[in-house]
Design goal:
With 328 residues, this protein is an alpha/beta fold. The two termini are 44 Å apart. The protein has 12 helices and 14 strands. Strands 6-7-8-3-9-10 form a 6-stranded mixed beta sheet, sandwiched between helices. Strands 2-1-4-5 form a 4-stranded antiparallel beta sheet, with helices on one face. A 4-stranded antiparallel beta sheet has the order 12-13-11-14, with no helix packed on it. The N terminus is likely disordered.
């Protein structure tokens, strides 16, 4: 996927239709239960509100209830009790209106691999009653935006994994949904394609599309999402802003690159320092301490630091701690 500037994506006539803001909640779930025929109680009365325009992370371990929640929202399964509304439309009384509001990118590829790429997108629009001429126009726009135009006449089976993921997103966007649900959208995709997809998702979110993301790449959730809910054993155990959650960490960890090989690290009581290799150091410091202490240490011991960055697994640390606490 080419590195398309956000201004180019945001100027798309297809996306500009989503920019109208509203105070209506994108999703409201109240006391939602789901019990399967084998008596597995997958959801135990969850409550969740997501505001229009949010980029929201729904995280949990395998079997926690994420997929069940998504299936219920998208009418792929029937709830046992509780209520679901999407942009004010109740799933029990206005199911078709709810479906019109939602675009779903499932984890598994579920298109006809022998069908041409553009036809997959166009035919999806037909399911929503969109005239074929409009479907063709929208499909062409999506193919250009997602850098699939050159593959439009090829059978989907010939696409790479990253291209198939982009095709899934294009298909989900053909009816211009107000709520896009992404279930592991970058699974198995290399880092360059993943970051390009991040850029596209950020752009359509800025254009007005509400996004719910499930992912096992916690760096992805931390980079993209403003708010987060964590589900465990069918219960919501955390529901807050990403910033508030990350602020709970008492310490911060930095990765530093030294100019010269480091052969010895003198002990210090001010922070924890580890050596990853001869040029790479990892420092964990309490948030109450000034970073000047760290820089003074390196200056005193003649260690010249060329670059410094945050360690990217802060959310992973909190995620594990929350699940361990809930499972105790």
């Amino acid at each position: 996927m080419s590195d398309l500037p956000l201004s180019s994506i945001l100027s798309s006539p297809l996306l500009s239709l989503n920019t109208t803001t509203t105070m209506t909640r994108a999703l409201s779930i109240k006391d939602l239960h789901k019990t399967y025929d084998n008596d597995v109680h997958a959801l135990k009365g969850i409550n969740l509100d997501i505001e229009a325009g949010d980029f929201f992370a729904l995280l949990g371990a395998n079997g926690a209830g994420k997929s069940t929640t998504i299936n219920l929202i998208c009418s792929l399964a029937n709830k046992t009790s509780g209520s679901i509304s999407v942009f004010g439309h109740d799933i029990d009384t206005e199911r078709e209106r709810v479906k019109e509001q939602i675009g779903l990118v499932p984890q598994e590829f579920n298109f006809n691999i022998f069908e041409p790429v553009r036809e997959i997108i166009i035919n999806q629009g037909g399911y929503y009653g969109i005239p074929r001429a409009d479907c063709i126009e929208r499909a062409n726009e999506l193919l250009h935006t997602l850098d699939l135009w050159d593959k439009r006449h090829e059978q989907a089976r010939g696409l790479s994994g990253g291209m198939k993921r982009r095709l899934m997103i294009a298909r989900s966007m053909i009816h211009q949904p107000r709520l896009l649900i992404l279930d592991e959208p970058t699974a198995g995709v290399d880092i360059n394609i993943r970051r390009s997809m991040w850029e596209y998702l950020q752009a359509i979110n800025e254009a007005g599309t509400t996004i719910i993301l499930t992912t096992h790449y916690l760096e992805e959730a931390e980079s993209l999402c403003r708010n987060i809910a964590i589900i465990n054993k069918g219960n919501i155990v955390e529901n807050t802003s990403m910033k508030a959650l990350l602020n709970r960490l008492d310490t911060e960890t930095f990765i530093l690159d030294a100019r010269d090989p480091v052969s010895h690290l003198p002990a210090t009581d001010d922070f924890i320092i580890r050596q990853r290799d001869e040029h790479t150091l990892e420092v964990t410091i309490n948030k109450s301490r000034s970073l000047n202490i760290m820089f003074e240490y390196f200056t005193t011991h003649d260690i010249r630091i060329m670059s410094m960055r945050n360690r990217s697994n802060r959310l992973e640390q909190l995620f594990v701690e929350l699940l361990e606490e809930d499972n105790a």
